[in-house]
Design brief:
With 150 residues, the protein is of the alpha/beta class. It has four helices and four strands.
Length: 150
């Protein structure tokens, strides 16, 4: 798949807006900064962002610690050019959210790293794999941000 210009606004969605969708939003911001309006949500928002998600995004120099999970319902009235769902459950809800608004939506399946059991190192590696998979998909879909600096 060749990269295309990013939409002007994009929403990433997962189940709890605690791991996958906040990581995707942070990685998209890392690529495109303020040139794209970026948000994330979940079906049932968690109380806070996952500490392992914060840690693996921090490894790339991005601070995710201030993320406050939210739901689709909290986005009432907002319009996006594209909604990317990262879990099957969020994909169903994204379809409902987009249908009447005529918003494009895509499904990028990303395994839930919170389901991995084992040592801390094994668990954090699962988060890195999810992060890197999302980042690869962003690169394939949107390429690198273009700047005037060359």
């Amino acid at each position: 798949m060749s990269a295309v210009l990013p939409p002007t606004s994009i929403l990433f969605a997962c189940n709890l807006n605690r791991v996958r969708s906040p990581m995707a939003a942070a990685l998209m911001r890392r690529r495109f900064g303020d040139s794209v309006r970026i948000d994330s949500c979940g079906l049932r928002p968690a109380d806070s962002v996952d500490p392992f998600a914060v840690a693996v995004i921090d490894e790339l120099g991005v601070d995710l610690s201030g993320h406050e999970p939210k739901s689709f319902d909290s986005l009432d009235g907002q319009v996006f050019d594209l909604v990317v769902s990262l879990s099957p459950e969020a994909h169903d809800r994204a379809g409902e959210f987009c249908r009447d608004r005529r918003i494009r939506f895509e499904y990028w399946p990303v395994s839930d790293p919170t389901l991995v059991e084992g040592t801390r190192d094994q668990r954090i590696e699962a988060y890195r794999l999810a992060r890197d998979g999302i980042d690869r998909r962003l690169a394939e879909r949107f390429g690198q941000a273009r700047t005037f600096r060359g």
